[in-house]
């Protein structure tokens, strides 16, 4: 079993990789093990511990840029959630949780009565996409449609991943963690976050 200090070191290194290279948590943990020259079977920190370190890293090194980058990605996510509103989109991942930077992807869950309906909608809108997969909430693989979206504000192309879930999966609860953070939010919840971001900044000149 890894000592607390080793786990913390792994978490801190993984967090740096997440922020600086845009890596996902799983690959970042494995890369951290290699960079720290630790045994492959070392006990890894959980995702909450990684996320705590990501927040700390952002506050220490990216406080002047990350908030605006996060807002820009949330606004872009909102655009696509409105475009795909019939599929009950929910935003998840770094854009929802508040750790996103210009290197982050946007992750949206779509809850469809027909698994092919969202794909047909993209075709009808002449949107190019790639098809992949990931484990779904019931343990089976689900389709993930990935589109590349230009973001002029950040001067990058942002990948938007659309996970195609069954409409019944929306009923699966998403309890808040120990800090009150949930795993996903619908269009109205994201709009509220953006409004909350506006509140403290409005008096500034």
Would you kindly provide a written description of the structure presented here, covering whatever features stand out?
This protein has 205 residues and is α+β, with helices and mostly antiparallel strands. The chain has 2 domains: 4-61; 66-201, Beta Polymerase, domain 2, CATH 3.30.460. The chain contains 7 helices and 6 strands; from the N terminus they run H-H-H-H-E-H-E-H-E-E-E-E-H. Strands 3-4-5-2-1-6 form a 6-stranded mixed β-sheet. Strand 4 (141-151) and strand 5 (156-166) form a beta hairpin. The longest helix has 18 residues, at 4-21. The protein is globular and about 50 Å long. The chain starts with a helix and ends with a helix. The model has no long low-confidence stretch (mean pLDDT 92).
Label the structural class. alpha+beta
Distance between the termini: 52 Å
Residue ranges: pLDDT <50 for 5 or more in a row?
none
**Secondary structure: number of strands:** 6
Strand order of the largest sheet: 3-4-5-2-1-6
Principal-axis shape: globular
Name of the top-level CATH class of the largest domain = Alpha Beta
- The secondary-structure element order is HHHHEHEHEEEEH
CATH level 3 topology of the largest domain:
Beta Polymerase, domain 2
Mean pLDDT: 92
